[in-house]
Design brief:
InterPro entries: Asp/glu_Ase-like_sf, Asparaginase/glutaminase-like, Asparaginase/glutaminase_AS2, L-asparaginase_N, L-asparaginase_N_sf. The longest helix is centred in the middle third of the chain and has 13 residues, at 60-72. By secondary structure, the protein is of the alpha/beta class. The chain starts with a strand and ends in a 14-residue tail after the last strand. It has 4 helices and 8 strands, in the order E-E-E-H-E-H-E-H-E-H-E-E. The protein has helices at 31-39, 60-72, 87-95, 119-130, and strands at residues 2-9, 14-15, 26-27, 44-53, 77-81, 102-106, 136-141, 144-147.
Length: 161
């Protein structure tokens, strides 16, 4: 089993600022690297960076580049770390442009660097699901996994269901 992890940015990958003063988070190395180092996985994997953006800044061109990357690369499954604000938009976009591949989008409500982050659990759900799913586009968040066409999000609390 080979999983290709693709970083696009979002809260999961936000890191503390490297400059003094200020509260703006920055993007650094993929959070997936730190999570996988704790897992010591029994599967083959690669990590690619497609972008490092807040999901509100992801454009249609970024989404097309992501689709092109997934269509070009050879793996058994693709796990895309993404910001939650437009995760469903990207999933819908990929649904019409990626065919016959297992693609799971996931992210976090709090940066992976935070001790109370949901990032490791969300990534773990995506990894486990990658071993079992039929081709399609899915979202793994808040301990659930659903296809892009079935997932919904509560506007009041931000939870996917």
């Amino acid at each position: 089993m080979k999983i290709l992890f693709i970083q696009t940015g979002g809260t999961i990958d936000k890191d503390y600022p490297k400059t003094k003063g200020g509260w703006a988070f920055e993007f650094g190395e993929p959070a997936t690297e730190r999570i996988l180092s704790k897992l010591d996985p029994s599967f083959e994997y690669e990590i690619h960076t497609a972008s490092q953006k807040d999901s509100l800044e992801i454009t249609e061109a970024d989404r097309q580049s992501l689709a092109d990357l997934i269509n070009k690369e050879v793996a058994d499954a693709y796990v895309v770390t993404h910001g939650t604000d437009t995760m469903m938009d990207t999933a819908a976009f990929l649904s019409s442009r990626v065919d016959r591949k297992v693609v799971i989008l996931t992210g976090a409500m709090r940066p992976e660097r935070f001790s109370n982050s949901d990032a490791p659990i969300n990534l773990g759900v995506a990894i486990g699901a990658a071993n079992l799913l039929d081709p399609g586009i899915y979202i793994a968040m808040h301990g659930i996994l659903k296809s892009a066409s079935e997932i919904q999000r509560n506007a009041d609390n931000g939870k996917f269901y």
